[in-house]
Amino acid sequence: MKRFLLFGVGLAFTMVVAVACAGDEEVSEGKYAAGTELKIVQWSHFVPQYDKWFDPFAEAWGDANGVKVTVDHVGIPDLSPALSAAIDAGTGPSLVEFLFSPAAFIEGLHDLKDVNEEAQRRFGAQSETCTKSSYLPAKDQWYGFCHGWVPDPGDYNVALWSQVGFPNGPSTWADLLEGGKKIKDQLNVPVGIGLSPELDSRMAARAIIWSYGGSIQDENENVVLNSPETIAAVKHMAQLFKDTMTNEVFAWVPASNNQGLIAGELSYILNSISAYRTLQKIDPAAADDILFVPALKGPGGAQRAAAHVWQIYVIPEYVEGDELEAAKDFLLHHTANYNQAVFNSELYNFPAFKSTVPQLFDEGGWLDKDPFGSRPNDKLKVLRTTEDWVAWLGFPGPANPAIGEVFSTNILQTMMAQVAKGEKTAEEAVAEAETQINAVFEKWRGLGLVGGG
Predict the structure, then answer these.
(1) pLDDT tens track for 371-406
(2) Is the peptide bond before 371 cis (omega within 30 degrees of 0)?
(3) What class is the 2-151+308-384 domain?
(4) Angle at which helices 426-446 and 228-244 cross, to 10°
(5) Where are the beta strands (DSSP E) in 231-372?
(6) Is the dihedral of CA 150, 264, 234, 236 positive or negative?
(7) pTM to 2 decimals?
(8) Check: CATH 3.40.190.10 for 154-306+392-446?
């Protein structure tokens, strides 16, 4: 089946695109009892076009299947409180979509093993970064269904980097220090990697630690932060701050590096393509200077960066009967039509199941020829390699509740900021951070939600 969709993509043109649906399976009318409702709560997408597409898409599925569907979009900070309140009350939304592993809520969520297994049967293997972000080994439970994820490449200004001998941008953390210092010294434009309690700083801290060969936990969920590799990564970040950045990075919010790149005030950031898409709409000529590189390599050649976010639906335990079945069926329907999700996110979303969006990866497909006006139009082809270097929170172990708490309490960026400011040595800061992390792990291990020990 083909659907012909008319999109105003906000890039000074409107385009008609034929999107072949991967499955587009409908449930026979009458499967659900009269009056069945599906209430969805999810984040307000960074790309507004996605929400404009999703709401009528969901409502159309409901109309075809006798289900009243409503969608409520909220800010990211409101998702956890909304789910927590609903679980406590025993009533609320049918589906809640998170951007990070909600494993801490597992006791109040349905096991979605049947949905995950059916999706794998229909669509093939799921990306590992999605599996690790929705399955908890300690409970042998699929607490969520991860339908998509977002790559987090390096975004760099090619005009600036070319002037200091790096026309292809940095490929290693050592390159970022060398080239970033030259750009700051000669052109007075800093590197933009945060050292504050916010999302992008959290991701950058993990990327450099992994690429240096360190990690918070091992694959068996034992804490292993305090290592020579982590200490070396922290020292490098401190030097990177000293030579290439400014004090503003200690007070950044999630929008800061986006705004700096858009304003032409930063030479390199670690982020998704959303900042670039915004710049395309504001100043297409300036957007031409933004190119992308994969995760930077560490001194041993390791190359890792987390996904920017993971899109994970959960179903609270109070959802029962036809509402529960409708929620599960809608998840599979959404996945079967994921090419529409990717397109309407302007290629921000990547599919958990690659087979659902052949248009993205095929030779001459969307990554080779960006349908949203990139110049050159193949600048996103670097994202073809993301499966090789993408990680997940908790890598190489699962995204368990302890990892989630370490993430939300900003332990790693605090550790790095202390060293960058000269308040502690790298050895002192890493040892102190590991002590804090061990306490977090022991708490959750005592609840039976973390392995290892």
Answers:
(1) 999 999 999 999 999 989 999 999 999 999 999 999
(2) no
(3) alpha beta
(4) 120
(5) 268-270, 290-293, 305-306, 310-314, 350-351
(6) positive
(7) 0.92
(8) yes
